[in-house]
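Bug report (template v2)

What were you trying to do?
Predict the complex of my protein with pyridoxal-5'-phosphate.

What happened?
Run completed; filing so the output is reviewed.

Input:
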Amino acid sequence: MSRFFSDRARGMKASDIRELLELTQRPEIISLAGGLPNTKAFPAEQIAEICTDILKNDSHKALQYSATEGIRPLRQALVDYMKRSFHVDGEVDNLIVTTGSQQALSLISMGLLDPNDIVLTTAPSYVGGIGAFRAFQARIDTVAQDDEGLVIESLSEKLSTMKANFKKPKLIYVVPTFQNPAGVTMNEKRREEMLELAIDYDVLILEDDPYSRLRFEGEEVKPVKYFDYEGRVIFLGTMSKLLSPGLRVAWMLSPKDLSRKFAIAKQSADLCSTTFSQHIAYEFINRGYLEPHIEKVKAMYMRKKDIMLKAMDEHFPEGLTWTKPEGGMFTWVTMPEHMDSKLILMRAIKEDHVAFVIGSAFYPDGSGKNHMRLNFSHSSDEKLEEGIKRLGATLKKEMV
Ligand SMILES: Cc1ncc(COP(=O)(O)O)c(C=O)c1O
């Protein structure tokens, strides 16, 4: 049937580790692979209370279609939240509720990217972002990343070389805080410098931020959007990692002239995001549940991060390094150049019953083989410790 596929669909490729990751669903496997919140971090009781109230009092609204841009009270609550928690001034008209940030990535691609347009991102970068841009036939080019995120010199050089060749990217895509996959954070100086370069070369910045509220240590860093005095940053926020990914409630705050186009794109994508979920998210914020809940999640994830890093110190062989995240859900391991995380993953699953995500999944050109991403949010404390012990055993066998 492939003769019926569109050119676009022909270009879409399933990740080559999907089959391997399916194995991770087996009960004997400890998976440090997925980017999932911990199920104990879901505020089920509060959501049950809210659902009962919504169905009793507001079912005529909550079970109906709603505005494409999102229900007004939630949009207003999110604008207030952006001010309170991110120091960003926004207007309700420029904030659109989306069906997860993943939809925002698609809508932005739909609205901005023509085939062969270039999106610049870091190497490594979020695999779902890369996938969304590629689905719209964009080309992905990368700049270097170190322990403090995107390297400005690399961006500057790339933009200048492109200009010399009469090219420029449409978008610079970054996950600047507790990045998925590497857990690293760009400092404010780099954020400002990136923005200045974007202004000089007339490029838009897409700031994807699911994790910054999950900071357990260190100084808060203002979002790139905070420095955006002339309106060229699109900011993505989501309730997925704070409240629940199953609700699929996220938002995008865009420069004025873009939001209208994105709303039109969203109309053709899904008419509106789930109205019921939007009412739940609104009530969760409105009843003052969000901030205390985030504190609980942070305490849980900080404990898990400490357990994981301590176990890594204890069980991983010499010659490996890893990031020490101050928040978020991931740590990123760097192994000696010759090591191939795909081979290690096969061995880890088959022999030691533990899984992770291979580094090359996050590199648009398939490089990065000597890295792996480990998630610390999802597993129980015991499984985290045992999972790292098992992975340490695999790594030791690989290194002899
Ligand atoms: C960087 C990044 N962006 C976007 C998403 C998608 O989030 P959502 O559940 O809001 O679609 C994720 C999820 O892991 C992510 O890590």
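What did the reviewer find?
Residues 87 and 99 are 24 Å apart (CA to CA). The radius of gyration is 21 Å.
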